[in-house]
């Protein structure tokens, strides 16, 4: 049984570092950004409600709500555009990961595939 420099039994010092899965990292970033977007949307809706509360005439309240909704909509559009860009990058990383390795004929990567 080999022991590496850190004293971990069973570790092979000649073993290469595990390959990072860039596609998985990219999709995880998309999922994280989606959660962040939903949290920002909830915060914006709370801001709209807060801005439109308090002692004010109804027309001012409606105007505050309208301005808040337009601002929230614009921010939401920007969030969605960012998500689409991130998803496109993640899809590109997935395609790159699924591409056949150099020197290997197409279709030889999996069982039952024909070229």
UniProtKB/TrEMBL annotation:
Protein name in UniProt: Phasin domain-containing protein
Start and end residues of each stretch annotated as Disordered: 1-23
Organism phylogeny: Bacteria, Pseudomonadati, Pseudomonadota, Alphaproteobacteria, Hyphomicrobiales
Basic and acidic residues biased stretches: 14-23
Origin species: Alsobacter sp. KACC 23698
């Amino acid at each position: 049984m080999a022991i590496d420099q850190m004293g971990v039994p069973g570790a092979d010092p000649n073993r290469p570092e595990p390959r990072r899965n860039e596609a998985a990292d990219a999709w995880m970033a998309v999922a994280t950004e989606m959660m962040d977007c939903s949290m920002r949307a909830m915060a914006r809706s709370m801001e709209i409600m807060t801005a439109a509360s308090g002692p004010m005439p109804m027309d001012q309240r409606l105007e505050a709500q309208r301005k808040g909704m337009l601002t929230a909509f614009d921010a939401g559009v920007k969030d969605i555009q960012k998500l689409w860009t991130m998803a496109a990058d993640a899809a590109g990383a997935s395609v790159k990961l699924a591409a056949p390795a150099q020197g290997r004929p197409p279709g030889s990567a999996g069982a039952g595939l024909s070229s």
